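To: structure desk
From: M.T.
Subject: fold request, one chain
Message: Could you run this one when you get a chance? Sequence is below, nothing fancy, just the single chain.
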Amino acid sequence: MGFFKKNGYLPFSEPEIGEEELNAVKRVFKRNWFTSGPEVKEFEKEFSEIVNSKFSVAVNSATAALHISLKALGIGAGDDVISVPFTFVSTINTIVESGAFPVLVDIDEKSYNISPEKVVEKIEQDYEFSEEYPVNKKTGNRLKAIIPVHYAGQPADMDEIDQIAKKYNLKIIEDAAHAIGSFYKGKKIGNSKNLVAFSFYSNKNITTGGEGGIVCSNSEEYESLLRLYSLHGIDKEAYSRLRQEGLPFYDVKVLGFKYNMTDIAAAIGREQLKRIEKINRKRRLIAKLYSQYLSEVEEIVIKPVSKEKKSSYHLFPVEIKNYERDSLIKELLNKKIQTSVHFIPVHLFSYYKKHYPYKEGDFPVSEAIFRRILSLPIFPAMDEGDVKIVVKAIKDIFSKK
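Reply: Done. Structure tokens follow.
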């Protein structure tokens, strides 16, 4: 029996939590150490093994992972960072919080990811070239980095982005909040010289109990800085000081933050990691079923994932044509089916309108996609019957227009 028939409704997302996670939390309680400790160390190690990275640093959100990545790269006031408006606001907020300026570039309408062509166009148009970094012709800011977002689990065009970064001497931070288990040209997202940030928020493919994130890389020179920035700049974590060495002394090397992951969160994450392949197989099956059953619905447009990429399907986005998207959201909700919208372009939020020189019309692809896009329910507890219920509801609504 599917989720809808069991519960009488279908949420947009639902985490998969079982006895294994409950027992893992009990294990932490029995040890009587709740903040960062041995569970976090094991979680970091196990995560690196899954994504084939040389190290991982666990934190309390993907926002934190992005923020400490910017700090570890030395990005701050007087620097520019390129990213997209078509993302969750935290991607851009972290650039601002680091002291840098967010340079927004529109997306590709087929993949919903950053357009490499538009990145090059922006750099060539707005920057002049010094020996070290491109310099903004108007502000004098130095262009330091690019943050591509792997939207919905489909990887961005990383070969092209890597080439751009090499040409202009830029660093790359990958926003992989949606992309645990995704592949680009046969290589796992996370297996990279770049800094790569993942999310374990409650609606992600796996969770660490509602909140959590991690940053990983094969560039080991950043590990110590990332760890420092994740916990107040302190050079010795509490567990090693108090439980292993027994000595209370430490030094503060940099001005860091309180971003560390707890052992409770890591224990949950370790159990989730054991099922990540199974979870992603189920998500891919649900996506395949949606594509099959919606293929003949003329009001629905499904953009295919490129053959050189393998999506984790954190989201299953569709575009709505010849029907008002917001009306469809309400009518599906009346049928006890919850959907969502990913994303409201960042430059349309009041804060960014007020403080940054962006306005409606600046990013036509992002804005057009936003007005049409809808994320359908997708999570492992769904079955084919649930997909059929969603598809039937959509067809019934469209038949009455």
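Reply (cont.): The chain has two domains: 3-7+276-399, 19-274. Let me know if you need anything else for the meeting.
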